[in-house]
Design brief:
Number of strands: 6
CATH topology: YdfO-like fold
Shape: globular
CATH class: Alpha Beta
Oligomer: single chain
Number of helices: 4
Largest sheet: 6 strands, antiparallel
CATH architecture: 2-Layer Sandwich
CATH superfamily: YdfO-like
Length: 131
């Protein structure tokens, strides 16, 4: 897996210069199969198809605490808002944290993301169909 692409995807995402579909496309081309964003520890782990893994810090300025109350409908609405480009990625992260998401996992080949709460609650979001 090309670790430099993973680094670039984190930096560009946080800067609002790349969309989720672009991240998935770049990581897939770089040899990634999935990744986890830890919103408590502020880390991202990207896993390669070859068994490799790569860690990135996720430097958020003044992140909100993760709510203990998992609210799947608020997470779903936040996903819709970022898909419609109503919010940027940092706002997306802050809102899913406030809605109780402690981490999420993206499965590139499986074409889905799963958002987890601190008590094991989850919301599964399938990737939108290509237009």
């Amino acid at each position: 897996m090309d670790f430099e692409i993973a680094n670039e995807c984190v930096a560009l995402s946080l800067a609002g210069k790349i969309t989720f579909p672009e991240v998935v496309q770049r990581l897939a081309a770089a040899g990634a199969e999935r990744y986890i964003v830890d919103l408590v520890g502020l880390k991202k782990i990207t896993f390669g198809v070859n068994g490799s893994s790569h860690y990135n810090d996720f430097p958020l300025q003044n992140p909100p605490p993760v709510s203990k109350d998992f609210n799947a409908s608020k997470i779903q609405q936040t996903i819709r808002d970022i898909q419609q480009q109503k919010i940027n990625y940092v706002t997306f992260l802050e809102r899913v944290m406030a809605a109780g998401c402690c981490h999420y996992e993206v499965y590139i080949d499986g074409r889905k993301a799963i958002y987890f709460g601190c008590s094991g609650d989850q919301h599964i979001e399938n990737f939108p169909q290509a237009r």
